[in-house]
Design brief:
Layout (H helix, E strand, L loop, with lengths): L4 E5 L3 H11 L4 E5 L2 H8 L7 E5 L7 H10 L8 E5 L4 H10 L3 E4 L4 H55 L8 H17 L4 H4 L2 H10 L12 H4 L7 H7 L2 H19 L10 H15 L20 H16 L10 H10 L7 H9 L1 H10 L5
Helix pairs in contact: 2-3, 6-8, 6-13, 6-15, 6-16, 8-12, 11-12, 12-13
Length: about 375
C-alpha cells in the first residue's frame, strides 16, 4: 500500500525540518514555505491526504490558505491540522469554522504530532472507504433500477403490441398518442395551475402509462373490434366496455401486487404501482368528455382526471388524422378546426389551448410516425 502523503506548510525552515524528519519514515512528505505555494501544491496530483498548516506566515496566513484550499470541491475531504504557537480560543474557533480538524501547538511534542496525524489519516481513510462504498452502492442501485425499468418497459411494450396487433389499422397509434400526450403535458407543465400538479415524475408516469389506454380491447370480440365499417349501436355499446375491462384488469394487477408485497409497501407505494394507478385512470376515463356526455361514467369538467383529459385529445386527434376503411384521413387544418370547436364540449379548454400552441409538434409526429401501407 502506498504511503499517505502529507503536505507541511511553514515559513520557518527549522519547523519544516523537524516535521519532515519526524514523519518521513512513515509518510510521503511534501513541504512549502509560503501560503501561495501551498494553495497550488494542494491541487497537484496526487493530492495530499493531510495538511499540516502554520497559521502565522508572511504572505497570506493559514486561515486564508485554508479558506482557499476548501474552495475547491476536491479538497474539501482533505483534513487540515493547524500548527501554531498561538493558544487563543478565538484563533481555534476561526480555524474550526473554516474547516480545520485539529490544532498542534509549538514547540512540537513528537508523540502528540504522530498520534494526531495517525488518527486523522485513519479517519480520512475510513471516510474515503465509506464514500467509495456509497458511490458503488449508488451506482449498483442505479444499474438495478435501470435494469428493472428496462424489463418493465419491455413487458409493457410486449403487452401493448400484442393488444395492438388485434387492430391492424392502427399500427403506430400507440407510439403517436404517447408522443401527443407528452407534447400536451410538457406544454401544460409551463402553465399555472398545472406546474405544481404535473411534476416531472407524474408526467413521466402519464406518458409511460398512455400506451395502456386501449388495453381493454383485448376483451372485445373480434367480430366487433375488427369489423370493416361503422359499428351498430349495439356493437358500439359492447365496444365501450373496453374502458372498464382495461381499468378492471389493471386494478386487479395492482391489488395482487399489494397482496403479495403488503409488508414491503407500507412506507411508500413504489413507482411501478404509481404508474399502474395512472394507467388505470387513463384506461377508465379516456372516453369521458368535458361536457359530461362521454363514457363510461359521464364525468364532467375537472372531475375527469388530467391524464385522461390529455389522452382524450391525443386519441381523437390520431383517430381523425388516420385513414380507416370507412373514412379518409382528415387534414391537419380540418382536425385543428374540429378540436377548437370541441373546446369545452369534448375537450378540456386548457388542453385544447395547449394543442393549438403545439400543433406544429403534432404535425411533425404525425408525419414521422405515419403508418406505412
Amino acid at each position: 500500500m502506498d504511503k499517505p502523503t502529507i503536505l507541511i506548510v511553514d515559513d520557518e525552515p527549522i519547523n519544516l525540518s523537524m516535521l519532515k524528519n519526524l514523519l518521513a519514515d512513515r509518510y510521503q512528505v511534501r513541504a512549502c514555505k509560503r501560503g501561495e505555494d501551498a494553495v497550488r501544491a494542494v491541487n497537484v496530483e496526487p493530492r495530499p491526504d493531510l495538511v499540516l498548516l502554520d497559521i502565522m506566515m508572511p504572505d497570506i496566513d493559514g486561515f486564508e490558505v485554508l479558506a482557499r484550499i476548501k474552495q475547491e470541491p476536491k479538497n474539501r475531504a482533505i483534513p487540515v491540522i493547524f500548527v501554531s504557537a498561538l493558544d487563543g480560543t478565538i484563533d481555534e474557533e476561526k480555524g474550526f469554522q473554516l474547516g480545520a480538524v485539529d490544532y498542534i501547538t509549538k514547540p512540537f511534542r513528537s508523540a502528540i504530532v504522530l498520534e494526531r496525524v495517525r488518527v486523522h489519516l485513519e479517519l480520512k481513510r475510513a471516510r474515503d472507504i465509506l464514500k467509495d462504498q456509497n458511490e458503488w452502492l449508488e451506482a449498483e442501485v442505479g444499474r438495478r433500477l435501470k435494469e428493472n425499468q428496462l424489463i418493465q418497459d419491455l413487458t409493457l411494450t410486449v403487452i401493448t403490441e400484442l393488444a395492438d396487433t388485434r387492430d391492424a389499422e392502427t399500427a403506430h397509434h400507440i407510439l403517436r398518442t404517447r408522443s401527443y400526450v407528452e407534447i400536451l403535458g410538457r406544454c401544460l407543465q409551463l402553465q399555472s395551475p398545472y406546474a405544481n400538479e404535473l411534476t416531472e415524475a407524474y408526467l413521466n408516469n402519464i406518458v409511460k402509462a398512455s400506451p395502456l389506454h386501449d388495453i381493454g380491447k383485448i376483451g372485445i370480440p373480434d367480430s366487433i373490434l375488427l369489423k370493416p365499417g361503422r359499428l351498430t349501436e349495439a356493437e358500439f355499446e359492447i365496444m365501450k366496455r373496453h374502458c372498464s375491462i382495461g381499468g378492471q384488469a389493471i386494478r386487479s394487477a395492482i391489488d395482487k401486487a399489494l397482496a403479495m408485497n403488503r409488508s414491503n409497501l407500507e412506507a411508500e407505494k413504489p413507482m411501478s404501482l404509481q404508474f399502474l394507478e395512472v394507467a388505470k385512470t387513463i384506461a377508465d376515463h379516456h372516453h369521458e368528455k368535458w361536457d359530461g356526455s362521454g363514457y363510461p361514467q359521464g364525468l364532467k369538467g375537472s372531475a375527469i382526471p388530467l391524464p385522461a383529459r390529455l389522452m382524450a385529445l391525443a386519441d381523437v386527434f390520431d383517430a381523425l388524422t388516420t385513414p380507416r376503411v370507412y373514412k379518409r384521413a382528415w387534414s391537419m387544418l380540418e382536425t385543428v378546426d374540429y378540436v377548437r370547436q370541441q373546446s369545452g364540449l369534448h375537450f378540456d379548454p386548457d388542453v385544447v389551448e395547449a394543442f393549438v400552441s403545439e400543433q406544429a409538434a403534432f404535425a411533425e409526429v404525425m408525419a414521422r410516425m405515419a403508418d406505412r401501407r
